[in-house]
Amino acid sequence: MNTTNLYLESVKKQFLYYRTLGEKAMEQLEPEQLFISINKDTNSIATIIKHLSGNMLSRWTDFFTSDGEKEWRNRDSEFEETIETKAELLIFWNKGWDCFFELLFSLKPEQLSEIIYIRNEKHTVIEAINRQLAHYPYHIGQIVFYAKQLKKSEWESLSIKKNKSKS
After folding, report:
1. How many CB atoms lie within 10 A of CB 146?
2. pLDDT (mean) for 102-107
3. Quick one: which of 59, 76, 49 has its CA closest to 142?
4. With a threshold of 0.90, does the pTM exceed it?
5. Which of 29, 58, 155, 158 is 20–30 Å from 144 (CA)?
6. How do residues 44-89 score in pLDDT, each as one tens digit?
């Protein structure tokens, strides 16, 4: 397998892992906990998901033919509390990830060096993927951290449990 194939397989695994991590964190919460914001400057998990979905839809729709910052995207509205149910929230979550994975899983190694635009700035496809490989896990980390705080002692670890490294 050549380097570009290895890269594509690696990033697919990484993004699938982070999606799963976010889902496992959310599964541990009561539906109403997804909408808790501890102060006016903190986003709820629902708001973070709404932002992730908006970013994914903007970046990966018409990826090769239009700028990744779509004119129809209203980024500011992503931070408004408008989602009311977990079911509605999961529609946003899945719509964003589905759009992203549809594009990612369709990429061919020879496309990785092609130029695309995000906010009128040139990026290779690899750069665009790497940009999101930093962005999406950042927000998944927020979701996991927030969920863990909301669950307190009832939290089921998503990796190696505390003081269980040797086992």
Report:
1. 23
2. 98
3. 49
4. yes
5. 58
6. 999 999 999 999 999 999 999 999 999 999 999 999 989 999 999 9
Q: Is residue 1 scored above 80 in pLDDT?
A: no
CA–CA dist 114, 108 (Å, integer)? 11
φ, ψ (nearest 5 deg) of residue 46: -60, -45
Closest CA to 103 of 63, 55, 131: 63
Radius of gyration of the chain (CA): 17
CA–CA–CA angle 37, 16, 137 (5° rounding): 40
**Alpha-carbon distance 155 to 14, whole Å?**
23
CA-to-CA distance for 49 and 85, rounded, in angstroms? 13
**pLDDT beyond 80 at 5:** yes
CB 111 within 8 A of CB 127: no
